[in-house]
Write a structure and sequence with these properties.
mainly beta; six-stranded antiparallel β-sheet; five-stranded mixed β-sheet; 39% strand; disordered N terminus
Length: 199
């Protein structure tokens, strides 16, 4: 386990694009009126373990390399136990779910949830977290896209150093879980969708 944590620490030191901002209201308002992620029930698919260590969660946008809240199947996939979900229909996203992903052991403070992804097409993961201090909420949201391969399990790990309010403090990385150990996946920054980049 120490080897895996050391590997993860080194990997998370790589530069990544992120978006962090100080806002008066928490980004939790984003979840009101939104749907839960719809998993593929059959066909070519693979497993993803979503992990994070602080208050926060993940949204998933299938068949997309950008963020489109109206994308069919897109929605909330995971919020950890320290986050209050005010929408009853989304409460299941806090439940611990284990699909047998041979994920990395990351420590007792890391919470995880497994989902199914469609393979052979892009998927965008939006990692969201925040902190509060002095009456303000410090919010960090980071979206990355990649194309899952059939027969390969994945793990996404999101971390943020919190109140530093520096873009390099927000990290999310995706790993292929291979017999030789976790291998970083090359992901791309996922902007908001437009007519030019959708798909």
């Amino acid at each position: 386990m120490k080897r895996q944590i050391a590997f993860l620490t080194a990997a998370l030191s790589l530069p990544l694009l992120s978006s962090c901002a100080m806002v008066k209201d928490s980004w939790s308002s984003l979840i009101n009126g939104l749907n839960a992620y719809q998993e593929p029930a059959d066909g070519p698919r693979t497993r993803l373990r979503m992990s994070l260590g602080q208050v926060g969660g993940y949204r998933v946008y299938p068949a997309a390399s950008c963020i489109d809240h109206g994308q069919p199947g897109a929605g909330l996939a995971f919020f950890n136990s320290r986050f209050h979900v005010p929408v009853p229909s989304l409460s299941h996203t806090k439940e611990r779910r284990d699909l047998g992903v041979p994920g990395m052991a990351l420590g007792k403070d890391i919470e995880s949830r497994d989902i199914w992804l469609r393979t052979g097409q892009p998927v965008t993961l939006l990692y969201m977290t925040d902190d509060a201090e002095g009456g303000y909420h410090y919010s960090c949201q980071l979206a990355r896209s990649f194309v899952p391969r059939e027969g390969v399990d994945y793990q996404a790990v999101g971390m943020w150093n919190g109140r530093r309010l520096r873009t390099e403090g927000c990290r999310v990385m995706v790993f292929e879980l291979t017999p030789a150990g976790p291998q970083p996946v090359e992901t791309r920054a996922a902007p908001m969708c437009s007519a030019q980049n959708k798909g």
